[in-house]
TrEMBL record:
One of the protein's GO biological processes: DNA recombination
Domain Tyr recombinase residues, every copy: 190-405
Compositionally biased tracts (Basic and acidic residues): 415-427
Entry protein name: Tyrosine-type recombinase/integrase
Family: Belongs to the 'phage' integrase family.
InterPro entries associated with the record: DNA_brk_join_enz, Integrase-like_cat_sf, Integrase_catalytic, Integrase_recombinase_N, Integrase_SAM-like_N, Tyrosine_recombinase_XerCD
Amino acid sequence: MAHDRLGPGEHGEIFISRHKSGSYQARVRIRLLNGEVTQVSRNRKSGSAARLAVQAEIDTLLNAPRGSAQLKPDSRVGLAARQWIDDLRLQSTWPNPPRRPQTVDEYERLLGTHLIPKLSKYRLNELTTAVCQDWVNSIIEAGKSGPHDMVVTAAQARGAFKAVLDRAIVHDALRYNPMDKTTTPKRKVPDPKAMTVTDVYRLRKAVRDWECARVGRPGPRPTGHVPAAIDVMLGTGLRIGEVLALNWGEVNLSRDGLPTIAVDATLVDIKGQGTVRQEMPKTDAGRRTIIIPQFTVESLEAIRPPVTQPDTPVFPSRQLRAGRASMKPQTPHNVRRSLRAALEIANMTGEVHPHLLRSTVATFVARERGMADAAALLGHKVNGGVTARHYIERLRLAPDTSAVLQAMVEIGEEAAAKETDRSKTRTADPGAGAPSATAEKVAVVDEDSGW
């Protein structure tokens, strides 16, 4: 007798028969969603139990993940991770990409370091929440023996692996994400640090002394780039990558109006390409124009070549030479190395790193002008609610904080000069120990501003 044709996901009548042993068998034909026809049978002590067992198996078969041409339920975790990275790398070439190339590189590093050695040979359908949580815990445990905990790394790796498995769900290789219920400890938020105005003076002096000490020595001629880069960071709060990505076409030192710097790019490290200029800041909110203080203007004027093109780097890797078609900017690595050398000579080793200058600028501006101006200067989004998000055109010109940052530098210089005068007075008259009214005023300025 011919069977009626079943549609995908349909099954025929469930037949129940009794064996000589007294047990019952239920059986049924079922057409799976992929068109394949199969028979399901289950043996139980009663007919109703056998029927229920067959119905449960039908439900399992129809709802089981079937996978796609790229990924199957029994595919290895390593394959799923590689395909996710490859997808992201392709998407990073799109206009306004959802992930930038350097972000994809970081995901690949995270998974290659922490996921692949532990779970790459597991099959997707072998993953459970317990297996995934044990993996997360192993990252945190590995950090207990080192100088830094691995809580942030564990959270980042967890997020990346969760995205890998979300993609597996899209490809019907999983029905649920076993990473969803995993947890990591709460991240410890570091206390922001900032330099004092005296520290700012010491830093600026250290890099200039280091630059002067190189004059007449073998090797490349001093360019003044490191002191100028420090002054740009102190005058703008820019990240080191944003500073070194500047071209002269983005710097306006004209005396006819306000001197400004336009932030339109940053330097990033991309696998296989090295350090390159990315024609967009780190974030969408980071595209802005900053009015710069006088000390920054003077530093930039000191290093500006007689002739420049709009695409000439402000901080080139080598001196401008006639006939050179194009120049590359200095890398953050090289500037950090030079800064460490200058700090070592000034006995300030370990006291300053480039990002500390950014937090110093933010702290000083926030105390003098408020959090909103500090956020706008740094290129952070200022939460203005629905009206600001949808109905007000975003201001591309950062608030004018040049006077505040000029004062930050001048206060440190004045304090250092007066300390030098007091030292000379004490040397000439050992009994003169009482502070002057002017010195007390400087101390009050330091205390009130929290520096």
